[in-house]
């Protein structure tokens, strides 16, 4: 028996490996199984070259759990090692500047394992002792056994072993005995090893018999050695892609379509990406892409490794150019990973464009499930945005789809305003905004449906890029003002008239912490609605964006500002105004007269102050002016209260306001009940 010390300052190495346990608990089994797969593949390669004459048809890796002995054994019938090779690859850990590197990276075992292939030593994360029993494929080789208990000392002795290959026996420590559970080993193997290129056997298959699971004589192979992404696209049918998706995501909905990646220059990259149906609420899991290196699972947390918007996709990416054992921060800064990310970005855009060109009808049928993904890409990746303009679609209220270029041609002539801006009218909810949509269509306008959570951000992006185009929601103004063709010539009420009429209708607007109402008066024609509620395009869009991104609380916390537009040309509005004149005519004249007199007195005092410095004005004049202003405020308030009192008692005024609220989905609960009862009274 030979004894010795491992050729590196192991007092540093083993504590670091132990610490690594806390960052990735179960990675040891991936490392040991991956090494066994490599050894098996190497022997098959040598056999193919005629350098090994033994039988390699039953090449496999076997994982065995012995709960009584408290061991996990990984066995392969691969290339094996001689005693000299054990010395070289296990004992010496021969790399330049090892001790200096360990000192520098002693807090990042992931970097150590990744840079220097120390995957074997990850076994010590869970083991109090590790045995390696190995026999080289070389003719006449003597089998040897290497043992180490996690200290720098090891033992190496000759043993008997019939078959070529290696057994790694891990004696699991007491604190890690959770790894001695069958379900835990199955979970780890299924996570990391289910697509390895060599059969991995774990126990026997089980069948249900007499109400319980019993073992059969058939080996339980846990992996698919030739998954779909390793094959050529020409060799796969649609059903093959669907079956593979079901294998990846047994509980997932059917994907829309897929992209098969197959690149061998300037780097190696294979994979299949699937487009899932993304709901409008944008609640998606971003850990659905699985990253592999030569069919060995690396991670399913790919943010920063692939473009942000591609994290919405599902599927597999495999590249030997992706380092297997490094932290995600290292992956994000790796030059190969950046090139791969950029290439995938382009391939996804090219594939979408090709699908659009090949079968536009099918593409349109999937658009509603696809648009969130494309919009997210356009907002987050400028290169993708430029490519996406070839297949990005706009959908109108007639359920017709248009490219950006097609839609501009459709609306440019009829929907260009007096300032030569093309106006894109849109609705966010065709049912709630039905009246506004219909009025716009009756004017010959086309209306888009922009109803998803990213639409406000996309609208802003388009308006910044195309400064001669504006997006206007159909309920942001009365239809006559949505697209102003020329300056209005209709006679408007004076400011004083609006001041007198506003309290009448303000008094019947509902009190709400969620909404404030600004009353305005416009001549909309006697055939239009008596009252219309509109929403400020700017404020509403800011609030929508605030809700979508959880920020901009200055806007998000403000109540909705609604405009109550009173149509002064409508017969019912005129009827209320006539009733106001009959009821309050003489009283208002008297109050208005007093207000006018008061204003005249104030003007006289103000005129007397002209040309004088503040200290030159007599105190009596200052007191008089203050008294006059106070009395004026009281007179004006009394007039407003008189008008508001009339408004509150006028059922027709209240009915018209409630009709406008009803058309906007804002009349609910007790107010809706009162409206119904009042409607019955007015009909009688």
From TrEMBL:
ATP binds at residues 31, 35, 76, 81, 96-97, 166, 328. Residues 588-645 form a coiled coil. The keyword Coiled coil applies. Keywords: ATP-binding, Chaperone, Coiled coil, Cytoplasm, Nucleotide-binding, Stress response. One of its GO terms (molecular function) is ATP-dependent protein folding chaperone. CDD domains: HATPase_Hsp90-like. PROSITE patterns: HSP90. Belongs to the heat shock protein 90 family. This is Chaperone protein HtpG. It comes from Draconibacterium halophilum. The lineage of its organism: Bacteria, Pseudomonadati, Bacteroidota, Bacteroidia, Marinilabiliales. The gene is htpG.
């Amino acid at each position: 028996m030979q004894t010795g010390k491992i050729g590196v300052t192991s007092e540093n190495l083993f504590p670091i490996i132990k610490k690594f346990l806390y960052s990735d608990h179960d990675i040891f089994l991936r490392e040991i199984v991956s090494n066994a797969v490599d050894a098996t593949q190497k022997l098959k390669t040598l056999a193919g070259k005629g350098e090994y004459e033994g039988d390699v048809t039953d090449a496999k890796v076997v994982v065995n759990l012995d709960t009584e002995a408290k061991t996990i054994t990984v066995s392969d019938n691969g290339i094996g090692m001689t005693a000299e090779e054990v010395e070289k690859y296990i004992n010496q850990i021969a790399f330049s500047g090892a001790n200096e590197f360990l000192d520098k990276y002693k807090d990042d075992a992931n970097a150590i394992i990744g840079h220097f292939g120390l995957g074997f030593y990850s076994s010590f994360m869970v083991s109090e002792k590790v045995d390696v029993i190995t026999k080289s494929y070389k003719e006449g080789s003597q089998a040897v056994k290497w043992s180490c208990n996690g200290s720098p000392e090891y033992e190496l002795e000759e043993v008997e072993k019939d078959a070529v290959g290696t057994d790694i026996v891990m004696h699991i420590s007491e604190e890690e005995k959770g790894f001695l559970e069958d379900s835990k080993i199955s979970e780890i193997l299924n996570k990391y090893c289910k697509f390895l290129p060599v059969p991995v056997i774990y126990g026997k298959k089980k069948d249900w018999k007499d109400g319980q699971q019993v073992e059969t004589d058939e080996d339980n192979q846990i992996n698919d050695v030739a998954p779909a992404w390793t094959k050529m696209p020409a060799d796969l049918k649609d059903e093959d892609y669907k079956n593979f998706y079901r294998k990846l995501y047994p509980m997932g909905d059917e994907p829309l379509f897929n992209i098969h990646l197959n690149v061998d220059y300037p780097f190696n990259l294979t994979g299949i990406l699937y487009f899932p149906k993304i709901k409008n609420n944008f609640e998606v899991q971003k850990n659905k892409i699985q990253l592999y290196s030569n069919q060995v699972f690396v991670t399913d947390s790919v943010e920063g490794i692939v473009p942000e918007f591609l994290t919405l996709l599902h599927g597999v990416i495999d590249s030997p150019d992706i380092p297997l054992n490094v932290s995600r921060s290292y992956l994000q800064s790796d030059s190969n990973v950046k090139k791969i990310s950029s290439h995938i970005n382009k391939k996804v855009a090219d594939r979408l464009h090709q699908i659009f060109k090949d079968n536009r009808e099918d593409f349109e049928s999937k658009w509603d499930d696809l648009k969130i993904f494309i919009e997210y890409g356009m907002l987050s990746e400028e290169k993708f945005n430029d490519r996406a303009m070839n297949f990005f679609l706009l959908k109108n209220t007639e359920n017709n789809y248009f490219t950006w270029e097609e839609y501009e041609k459709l609306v440019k002539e009829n929907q260009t305003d007096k300032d030569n801006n093309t106006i894109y009218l849109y609705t966010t909810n065709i049912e709630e905004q039905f009246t506004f949509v219909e009025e716009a269509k009756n004017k010959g306008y086309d209306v888009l449906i922009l109803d998803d959570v990213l639409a406000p951000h996309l609208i802003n992006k388009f308006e910044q890029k195309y400064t001669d185009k504006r997006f206007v929601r159909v309920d942001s103004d009365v239809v006559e003002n949505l697209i102003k063709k020329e300056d209005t010539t209709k006679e408007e009420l004076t400011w004083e008239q609006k001041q007198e009429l506003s309290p009448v209708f303000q008094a019947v607007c509902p009190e709400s912490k969620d909404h404030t109402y600004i009353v305005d008066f416009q001549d909309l024609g006697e055939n239009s609605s008596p009252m219309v509620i509109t929403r400020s395009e700017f404020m509403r869009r800011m609030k929508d964006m605030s809700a979508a991104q959880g920020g901009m609380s200055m806007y998000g916390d403000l109540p909705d500002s609604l405009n109550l537009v009173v149509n002064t040309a409508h017969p019912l509005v005129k009827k209320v105004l006539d009733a106001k004149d009959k009821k309050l005519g003489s009283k208002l004249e008297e109050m208005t007269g007093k207000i006018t007199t008061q204003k005249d007195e104030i003007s006289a005092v103000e005129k007397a102050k002209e040309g004088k410095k503040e200290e030159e004005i007599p105190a009596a004049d200052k007191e008089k002016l203050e008294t006059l202003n106070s009395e004026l405020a009281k007179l004006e308030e009394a007039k407003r209260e008189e008008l508001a009192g009339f408004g509150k008692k006028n059922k027709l005024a209240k009915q018209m306001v409630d009709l406008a609220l009803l058309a906007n989905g804002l009349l609910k609960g007790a107010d809706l009940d009162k409206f119904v009862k009042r409607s019955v009274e007015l009909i009688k």
